[in-house]
UniProtKB/TrEMBL annotation, chain B:
It comes from Bosea vestrisii. This is DUF1190 domain-containing protein. Pfam families: DUF1190. Residues 119-212 are annotated as: Disordered. Residues 181-193 have a biased composition (Polar residues). Residues 144-174, 201-212 have a biased composition (Low complexity). It comes from the Bacteria. InterPro entries: Biofilm_formation_YgiB.
Length: 388, 212
């Protein structure tokens, strides 16, 4: 694994925009940064990223099975008991999942370590699936990187295939929703709508704030059309606590991601994975904050809220002192402590590897880089290559 | 190879619109299409003033975009008997296909996007023989012509008297499409909306931290 300096394409903004990539620059700062690329060997990708990703997904499935039989776990994950039935039913029916992203710390030397699993509402999908793919093709054509490079990235193909298999027979119509006023969320959803359309699905968009409830208990979109299948880029832990939470079970709606993803999308997953596979080379020791075993982590650890996004409310503690933290609104449901896997430092830059799964199959990599050891919503997305 | 072999994007930048309009060649959802103002109001999905506004906008666009004919006969040759209306365009008397309805892109319905004008089926799509009841092409069946062809008249539009369960239209770009009749199928089966806005409150309180 190497960090390469690469000349950006001369008209890189226009090239990104022609794909419909609306947020290559966020708040005046470069978000899509093609002056840098990480280079991997095929062996690193296949043995150190792809295989562990698959293995961790397997552990997560085993954990879902276990959690559904153990109310103490469901409570510990702060899942409202009114929603246990919804979650259990979605798992037992075998509701398909679409996608997820494992965040890994990896330096090319030791094993990748799981930082967390964005199982429910991962973003940075379009840049991983399309923008970096397009960059690779053009950068090779323009001689900016050596010809014959490849990329761990079949996301686009896999997404289209996965949409066709969300249920049998293939859904006719599907709704997609996210919040208003988030260009990044909207970009992710627009891309998924495009993929669904290519899978032959009549894909409709409605903002989450527009969703309504019909007299017969079904949800409806902004134009009052019943919603039978809903991709929601909106976290389950919020859906579970809002006004329509009590309507979820009776809505006859198939959700993507399915409700069972709520069990693996919180940081509460991490202590259980460690408990189920102690010493696993790709896992970090982790405990709930009130667990006496936290003492084993010593003075260096990371404190994470059960629910948090974009690094919010995460605290890096070193020698008992706070080294880096991010403010945010999370933490009401409790915290976990996790052993620190220091992100590798490449000239003052800290990359986090996002290892993508589509329909639970590892199939892509997206890297975000920050100048601090906690990856936040200010970090830059940088492309990667597999060297020939 | 570890990467996708090709990537197609339906239409970068205007993905939603492109995805939507690509459906217009086939069966389109009935609730998106209103053949006249009273039907729009009866569907109760837009307010009465929104209905009026959408029809007025569509009517203006229609006059601007529709193919202009110098005689009623030449227009009807393309759009069928009674398929045309007279209009004044650049101070000249012209004939244009009647405004047979409007189609709303669903994702724009609440946000104030424009409606697309719909034209009567062309004679190519619905030859003269198919325009009477019993022809086996119910979507081409042509109802009694209302007294006014004006789109904003509430006395019934071009297809107002049809008992057919489906209707043929032409889009401005010339695409043929078939819509199911809202008054005979859609309304009866669509339950009323009990409430709206029950999701999204956490996001509002958390501002920018919505996804990861």
């Amino acid at each position: 694994m190497q960090r390469l300096r690469v000349a950006p394409r001369k008209n890189w903004q226009a090239e990104a925009e022609r794909l419909g990539f609306a947020y290559h620059t966020l708040d005046g700062e470069t978000y899509w940064d093609e002056s840098v690329a990480y280079a991997f060997s095929l062996k690193e990708i296949e043995e150190d990223i792809e295989a562990p990703t698959s293995e961790i997904e397997g552990l997560c499935f085993a954990f879902v099975e276990r959690a559904l039989k153990d109310e103490a776990i469901l409570r510990r994950l702060a899942i409202p008991d009114a929603q246990w039935g919804l979650i259990r039913d979605s798992w037992q029916r075998g509701d398909r999942n679409l996608y997820g992203r494992l965040d890994l710390a990896y330096d090319g030397k030791g094993p990748a370590k799981l930082l967390e699993y964005n199982a429910d509402t991962p973003t940075s999908l379009f840049e991983a699936a399309v923008v970096q793919w397009d960059w690779l093709e053009q950068a090779m054509a323009q001689g900016l990187i050596s010809r014959g490079c490849d990329q761990f990235n079949s996301l686009h193909e896999r997404l289209i295939a996965a949409f066709g298999q969300l249920r049998n027979p293939k859904p006719e119509r599907m709704h997609f929703t996210c919040v208003q006023d988030s260009v990044e969320d909207k970009g992710t959803v627009d891309y998924l709508i495009d993929c669904a359309g290519q899978a032959g699905i009549d894909a409709r968009f409605t903002f989450i704030e527009e969703l309504g409830l019909l007299a017969d208990g079904r949800f409806c979109d902004g134009a009052s059309l019943p919603v039978e299948m809903l991709f929601k880029l909106y976290p389950w832990e919020w859906l579970f606590r809002e006004q329509y939470a009590s309507a979820l079970a009776g809505s006859r709606c198939q959700f993507v991601e399915p409700p069972w993803k709520a069990l693996v999308s919180s940081k509460g997953l991490l202590p259980y994975l460690w408990e189920m596979a102690p010493g696993h080379p790709n896992l970090l020791p982790a405990y709930f904050e009130d667990d006496p075993r936290c003492a084993e982590l010593g003075a260096n650890h990371v404190r994470k809220p059960l629910y948090s996004r974009e690094g919010a409310n995460v605290t890096l503690v070193e020698g008992g002192e706070v080294r880096d933290s991010d403010d945010g609104p999370y933490g009401a449901e409790g915290f976990i402590l996790q052993a620190t896997a220091m992100l590798p430092n490449f000239d003052g830059n800290y990359p986090v590897l996002g290892s993508w799964l589509v329909a639970s199959q590892p199939c892509g990599l997206g890297i975000r880089e920050d100048t601090t050891p906690i990856t936040k919503n200010t970090s830059r997305f940088v492309p990667h290559v597999i060297e020939p | 190879m570890k990467r996708s072999t090709q990537i197609g994007l339906a239409a970068a930048g205007v993905v939603l619109v492109a995805t939507y309009w690509s459906l217009s060649g086939g069966e389109t959802d009935d609730s998106l299409i209103y053949s006249n103002l009273s039907e729009c109001r009866a569907a109760n999905q837009l307010s009465a003033s929104q209905c009026e506004q959408r029809f007025n906008e569509a009517s203006a666009d229609h006059l601007r975009d529709a193919k202009k004919f110098t005689s009623s006969a030449s227009c009807e040759q393309e759009y069928g008997a009674n398929g045309c209306q007279s209009a004044v365009w650049n101070n000249a008397q012209v004939f244009i296909p009647a405004l047979a309805g409007i189609m709303l892109a669903r994702q724009f319905m609440s946000g104030g996007g424009a409606a697309q004008p719909l034209l009567p089926p062309t004679n190519a799509a619905c030859p003269p023989g198919t325009r009477q009841p019993g022809s086996g092409r119910p979507e081409c069946e042509q109802p009694a012509r209302s007294s006014s062809s004006s789109s904003s008249s509430s006395s019934g539009g071009y297809y107002g008297g049809s008992s057919s369960r489906s209707r043929a239209y032409t889009t401005t770009s010339g695409q043929a499409m078939v819509a199911r009749n809202i008054s005979s199928t859609g309304m009866a089966s669509t339950p009323s909306v009990a409430s709206r806005g029950g999701f999204g409150s956490t996001s509002r309180s958390f501002s920018s931290h919505s996804s990861s």
